[in-house]
Amino acid sequence: MRLIRLELNGFKSFAKKTELAFGDGITAVIGPNGSGKSNIADAVRWVLGEQNARALRGARMEDVIFSGTQQRRAQAYCEVTLTFDNADGLLHVPFSEVAVTRRVYRSGESEYCINRSPCRLRDIVEMFRDTGVGRDGYSIIGQGRVDEILANKSNERRAALEEAAGIMRYRVRKEEAERKLEHAGKNLERLEDILSELHGRLEPLEKQSAEARAYLKLRDELRDLEINLFLYRHARGQERLAALEETLGQLSGEQAQGEEQAAAAQQEAAALAQRLSEQDAALSKRRGELLAARSGAEARAGEYNVLLERRERVRAERAAAVEARDALIARRDELGATIETMASGAAASAAQEQLARDVAAAQDALAAQDEALLAQERALEERKSALMEAMNRLADARSGLSRFDAMAASITARMDELRAQQAERAAADGALEQEFDEAQNALAALAAAREEAQQRLDEAQQRRAQLDEKHSEAENARRTLEQEAEAARSRLRVLSEMARSREGYQASVRSLMADAARDGRLGAAVTGVVAELIHVPARFETAVTMALGGALQNIVTPTAEDARYVIEYLRQKEYGRATLLPLSLLHSTPASARERALLSDAEGCFGLASELISCDAALRPVAEYLLGRTAVVEDLGAGLRLKKRTGGAFHIATLEGDIISTGGAMSGGSRQKRAPSLLGREREIKELREAVRQKEERLRALSETCEALSRDLMLAGLQAETFRSQLHEQELALARQKEKADIIARDRARSAGEGERLAQELQRLSDNLADAGRQREEATALERDIETGNAATREDVQRAQAELTQQRARREAASQALTEQKVRLMALQKERDAVEAERRRLQAEHEQACRAIGRQDEAIARADGQLAAAGERIEALRQSVEQQQRAADEQQREQDRLEQARAACAASLEQARQRREQALEALRDVGERRHRQELQKSRAEMELAAMQDRVWEEYELTYENALPLRHEIAPGPAAARVRAVRDEMHAMGDVNLSSIEEYRAVAERHEALDRQCADLRRAREDLERLVAELTGTMQSEFRRQFDVIQENFGRVFAELFGGGHAELRLSDSGDVLGCDIDIIAQPPGKKLQLLSLLSGGERALTTIALLFALLQLKPPAFCILDEIESSLDEVNVSRFAEYLRSYSGKTQFILITHRKGSMEVCDALYGVSMEERGVSKVVSARFGGAAG
């Protein structure tokens, strides 16, 4: 194996990736001071696993990463790789070339690789074991290593010698075996303590498990007996239920038959009631129809009379129209004659202008007269129309009076009939009202009784619900309390076991206290452990725990002799070390009055810790010694103020466990969540014991409360069932009375409805009669007004006709005079024009008269039509009146027949109601008997359910699941045996059923731990034998190799120094592996003297002699020497170089130097310089041969 190359990247001053190749022989690395030569040796040491930053000339491991310069940034990581030629297989890996790489990051993460595959540091160390190559071997001799090798009692010297002797692998195995041996010893000690504790638990658990097995046997017997008693009683209950079911079936048949009879009677009564109601409706309808028929007949008769009067009026109007037409015809003829006369007149020619004016004036006057005449004619026509309209209204009024009289007579007759029916209905209503009041009183009494029964049932149910709720709450509280008690017991067992095994104590204290419990002499010498002897309030536990620290495990003894005995005992048993506090020797400095005054009024200070704890008076010196100068404060702020105030007179502890020492040092921070402290554990055990006791007392009280509530709940259930039965009976009676009241109420409502209908009809008829009276009075008044108005209108018409006749005469006179004037004018002007004009006027008047005659003819024709229509209508009305009168008579006969049928139906309805009451009475009797049977069945079912619930609650079995467990029993003896078993179980008291499983578990654990102890003892013996064998091998091998190294050292020393004497000497030949190795050196011409008295060159040359002695014994693959010849003179440098050359055939040498003599023997040179400040650069040079 040989070193091929070294690659650096970012390591210290090598910022850039740098590669150094190494050949056989000697390679020198040269350069000025501070150029980074030694960083190459550091890189090799570092990649081989160096973990100490100081060995690499740094403070932290991150210091090996290039930290940057003004021109270059700092690297994030560094990496170094060593590549070896493993063709000879010296490294036990399947590679001919092995590259070892280490990389570290600024975050602190580190990586190792072998041939670029990640590995562990241990893998690299194992690979180079016994090759002489490694960070602790002799293959790398750096600056300062000379003094370490030559230093007195130097471990470095022994490590190098053992590496060369080849026993390092044995030492590693021995150290690992010793660690396993120590671990096995601790485990065995812990297991023996646990076995001791388990052994003490086995005997009582065995007794408890025996009692539990006997209890379980009795419980199984009781279960079998109770299940079979339950099956037997369940069968008897089922038989009783079957009998009750049969009786109930018979009663159900009777009840169904009675219900059918009652239903038939009810249906018959309902049918008759329906029939009676229908007859009442038909009778009422018939009465209405009769009244309507009579009213219609009377209305027809009135209309007939009105039409007769209207016909007479139309005849009179026709006669007047005929008279007016005749007058108009006469006027027309007169005008025609005048026109003919005027047509034959001659013209006049005298006094033309005067006559023209006279004619015009006459024409104007005639026109005015014509207009007045036309107005009078229109007024006369209007008066005639008004007169005819008044005559029509008069005829209508007279017809209405006749109709109102007939209607009033009919309404009066009907009202008399209705009043008679009301009188009959009032008598029937009185009887129904009395019967209804009696039924309502009975119903109210039954309802009050039912409400009282319901109230009692509600109260019972409410009380049962309250009891049930209280029972559930009590059960829940009991279960919760059981869980809490079990949790507390479990926690108490854990803490008690920890306390018994003294977990948390040092192994020495634990072992000593365990022996003190068994050894009387040792027990008398040990008072106890501080943590177990003092009692601290919970509030100050943290402060006192942190203030005492390890002193909590100090052992208190009565006297110094007892302490000496305990120390000797510890040493004899090899338990380890412990601190003892002999009461006879303890001395403390109590706080002065001034110091106490400073504490008493200090803010946030609770006082001295020794005064805040409690202990036996005899142990008070311990408390004063440990805590007499310790003050407890609230927080760090108060502590700092107290520190400043007292000037460091007290050790200060805060409630959170922060500590301020008398010298000013402070410690504190967060505390990890872990098991209770030694002080808190004892307190928690006491608190848990008290809590368990209180919970067990509360549990017993809750159990008694639950049992009492269960009894009260059962009684409340029975009471509620009794009240429910009473309520059922009250509800049956109430239902019967309600049904009777409903029947009466329906009859009463029907009667009330009928009475209301009669009253409404009577009121309606009364209103109709009043309306008819008012209308008749209005019609009478209207008739009088019309007659009075008609008389006045006739007189007005006559006066108007007279005035019209006179006006016409005057007009005729004026017209005649005008005609004469016109004639004269025409004679004067133009006779023909005048005549023609007069003729046109007269012609117009003639046409007007003709039109008036036409209108009169139309009026006459209209009157003739009205007369004909009135005659037809009058004849039809006469026939209709006679027909309606006959129909009214027929309806009256039908009404009489319906009233007779209604009376018969009402009698049948009363008989049907009596039959229904009898059927209902029989049905009620059957219902009461059926209810009593149902109550008995319900009680039987409840008893069965209670039995099933009890079996389910106690054994979680249903009837079907219990059947496979059935066998024949005698009920009486079985019940007696149940009582006896219960008495036996009760006499056993509280039985720990879990003790069976606990005993089994503890026994199994004891057996398993016992086997483990045996295995550990055998393992310990095997390890002890292995350690002894390794020790013997190491001793023999080291002795043999040591002699070789000593011989080589003496020879090489003499050769290097040119004489003299040197040897290696073991300080204790009996302990070759642990003794010091001394170096004895006597240079030529000097006396034997200490190494420290040698010069620097002599010391260096002696180290070189030892190095070459090791190389002769076991040459490593390579050797790095970092300026070890720097203190030699030129002559010795030459000797060193020659010697180095002689060994270079077997070992590669990498020589870091700046001595010319050393450079002359090198095969290759690497120059290291700094091309820029802080960055190293390598330049290589290889020679064909070594310089002499």
Describe the structure.
Helix content is 70%, strand content 9%. It is α/β, with parallel strands linked by helices and 1188 residues long. The strands form 5 sheets. The protein has a 6-stranded antiparallel sheet. The protein has a 6-stranded mixed sheet with strand order 8-19-20-3-21-22, covered by helices on one side. The protein has a 5-stranded mixed sheet with strand order 12-13-14-15-16, with helices on both faces. The longest helix has 176 residues, at 168-343. It is elongated, with a radius of gyration of 73 Å. Mean pLDDT is 79; it is low at 345-350 and 1184-1188.
Summarize the structure.
The chain is 70% helix and 9% strand. The chain has a six-stranded antiparallel beta sheet with strand order 2-1-4-5-6-7. Strands 8-19-20-3-21-22 form a six-stranded mixed beta sheet, with helices on one face. The chain is elongated and about 210 Å long.
Short key terms for the protein model shown above:
disordered C terminus; six-stranded mixed sheet; 1188 residues; 22 strands; alpha/beta; 23 helices; elongated
